[in-house]
Amino acid sequence: MTENPELAEESSMPEKDILAEIDAVDELPTAPPKRRVRLSWLGKASAAIVALWLVICLIGPSIAPFHEMDIDGDDGFMGYHTNEYGTFYLGTDYLGRDTLSRVIYGARNTIGISLASTLLAYLIGITLGILAAVKGGWIDMGISRVNDAILSLPTIMLGLIAIAWLGSSIPVLVGTASIIYASSVFRIARALGQDIMVQDFVEAAKARGEGVWWVIRSEVLPNAAMPLATDFGLRLVFVVLFISSLSFLGLGVQPPAADWGSMVRENLQGLPYGSYAAIWPALAIATFTIPINLIVDDISAKSGGSLASKMV
């Protein structure tokens, strides 16, 4: 019976050479292990508040005492009172509509538009940022220069120009906000991609013969996921404030639909008369954005603060 030449060669190899070859394979760098997110008690309380607002966005119309457009109050700018239509726990706005119901309905518009805009911004920003980091060359140069041009312009000015040109509607608001904030997402995605692409475990993957798309899917994106997820919270806060600012200027969600920014603007005239109708939507914005900031700070503190240097 003939002996397999490969087995014969392997059996004739000295034992120390075999051990050296095994050690060389064992020393190949691997990607860092995935870490679980551990929040402090403050981070957990903040997450519960954010989750509550998200639930209100989903089931708000079914739990609101009145419809957002119903004028059932006894008069405008009244405080807590009860009449034949029901109880107005937060009083009424300038038209006599229930403030609590409009805050609940406004959560769906404000948070929903902001969340959709942020998700679209991340889809655009991450795709272009990772592409620029991996490909480099003229692709990186071209995308980066266009991105720098967008970043150099004030966000509110861009929003005003886009809405004045295309009109105020929910698709226009989502598209405008996503394009504006995709430029910031591109910066952090590109920076993270460039950092990861020079790591030893990526070089080892290339040496094994892995393709570019495998490296992106298996090495770059998993290791960039945590910083990008943390940055997502900050971008969502920025977009909420951006949408609310446009609504405050009268260019966001149009009446009679409820929106937290427009509610503040509409009811400012009631402040000299002791009305809190403008305060409640402002508090709603604060109770949604501040807990998100606390969650981001909690996660970023556990990552050594290295994430902050990449944020724009």
What is this structure's SSE topology?
Blueprint: H1 5-12, H2 15-26, H3 41-63, E1 81-83, E2 86-88, H4 99-135, H5 137-151, H6 155-166, H7 170-197, H8 200-207, H9 212-248, H10 260-266, H11 279-302
Antiparallel strand pairs: 1-2
Helix pairs in contact: 3-4, 3-11, 4-5, 4-7, 4-9, 5-7, 6-7, 7-9, 8-9, 9-10, 9-11, 10-11
Descriptive key words:
single chain, 312 residues, two-stranded antiparallel ribbon, elongated, disordered C terminus
**Annotation, overall tally of beta strands:** 2
Return the domain count. Answer: 1
Strand content: under 5%
Order of helices and strands: HHHEEHHHHHHHH
Q: How many helices does DSSP assign?
A: 11
- Biggest sheet strand order reads 1-2
Most strands sheet: 2 strands, antiparallel
CATH class: Mainly Alpha
CATH superfamily: MetI-like
Q: How much is the average pLDDT? A: 84
Q: Tell me, briefly, the overall form.
A: elongated
> Taking Cα atoms only, what radius of gyration do you get, to the nearest Å?
27 Å
